[in-house]
Design goal:
The structure is a single chain. This protein has 344 residues and is of the alpha+beta class. 46% of the residues are buried. Strand 14, helix 7 and strand 15 form a beta-alpha-beta unit. 28% of the residues lie in helices and 27% in strands.
């Protein structure tokens, strides 16, 4: 699989929470060759299944969300757009280029005062969303005609190489993990499975997690793995709260995870001689695993994470080797899962 090409296609699309369809359609095209059936459910989730063909087979669901952080236009003043935001830190926005998702999308810039005219108080105070505007270079009449209230907005950012091993773009959270699911399915193509394998590209993770919860309620899997990003290490980050880029996938340990599934991931990594990292999650994991675990009568759940630098910014960075290793670990986890699950 051309992981770089997949990341470029997935991350280039603007698809914030509640407006995921463009990303879902790209993901659907990428997933269909490896599945027996692929569909989009009522909430907008992408669901695919590869059936093992064995009577009474258990169901395993692998999830990565397709939405990204973003903004929504709430009003227009003197041609400048007012907006609200979900998952976007206001400190990231002044002087930032954004994509206003009209048809076709248009470029905007978040207005800012030049440093020459900032007061001492303004220099020390972090901006608030309510005080910011998006400049689209229009007067009031044109902006009202071309940009309806409720239009979504995302960061404007190219998908680029960062050095020899890393890639940088918006929406790597969590489309890099969906790329890992695509690669895992590819690695399993010639493998006999004992479970029906479901792949979920879920919606609305950044605002509530309802996409994954609803999909799990419909599919009724026996096992789930939520695949999401976690914080990659940088010089200014706390080493006990971040993870090494290129250090391998991160396995969640805590009450949101079913112990035997966590152990199986750790054992599979050790058997492969793969470098893995451990993240202790004492409560809410901040992933779809939180809601998936208690769907229906309860679902055995694991959480696998991909280290990512600069989360919820337009310059999210992943290491390509981590994407590959995450896929390899998931593929190893799937093989013979039904047989082992029967005894657990």
């Amino acid at each position: 699989m051309d992981t770089e090409g997949i990341l470029e296609r997935l991350c280039a699309v603007g698809a914030p929470s509640g407006f995921e369809r463009p990303a879902v359609l790209v993901a659907k095209e990428l997933l269909e060759p490896s599945m027996d059936e692929v569909w989009i459910d009522r909430l907008g989730n992408l669901v695919g299944v590869r059936r093992c063909g064995k009577p009474g087979a258990k169901k395993l669901l692998l999830d990565a969300h397709l939405d990204e952080v973003g903004m929504v236009v709430t009003g227009i003043k003197d041609g400048f757009l007012r907006f609200t935001a979900h998952g976007v830190d206001a400190r990231m926005l002044p002087d930032r280029e954004v994509s206003v998702l009209t048809d076709p999308p248009m470029l905007g810039v978040v207005a800012c005062l030049p440093p020459h005219v900032l007061s001492e108080e303004q220099r020390e105070r972090a901006p608030e969303i309510k005080d910011l505007f998006i400049d689209v270079g229009m007067d009031q009449e044109e902006a009202e005609r071309r940009i309806p209230i409720g239009t979504p907005v995302v960061y404007q950012a190219d998908v680029v190489r960062l050095g020899a091993r890393q890639m940088c773009a918006k929406a790597m959270d969590d489309r890099a993990c969906f790329a890992a699911l695509l690669r895992a399915v590819e690695l399993l193509r010639d493998k006999e499975l004992d479970v029906d394998l479901y792949v979920l590209g879920s919606v609305c993770e950044e605002v509530s997690g309802v996409g994954a919860t609803v999909a799990v309620q419909a599919v009724m899997p026996d096992y789930c793995v939520a695949v999401d990003v976690t914080h990659g290490r940088t010089p200014d980050s706390a080493k006990d709260e971040t993870f090494v880029m290129g250090g391998g996938p991160v396995i969640g340990i805590g009450p949101n995870m079913t112990r035997w599934m966590t152990k199986r991931l750790l054992d599979d990594g050790a058997a492969m001689g793969m470098s893995v990292q451990k993240e202790i999650m004492g409560g809410n994991s901040g992933t779809n695993g939180w809601g998936m675990q208690i769907a229906n009568e309860g679902v055995a759940t694991a959480i696998l994470s991909l280290p990512l630098k600069y989360m919820h910014t337009p310059v999210e960075v992943v290491e390509l080797s981590d994407v590959e290793d995450c896929a390899r670990l998931l593929a190893a986890f799937v093989v013979d899962l039904g047989k082992e699950g029967e005894a657990l």
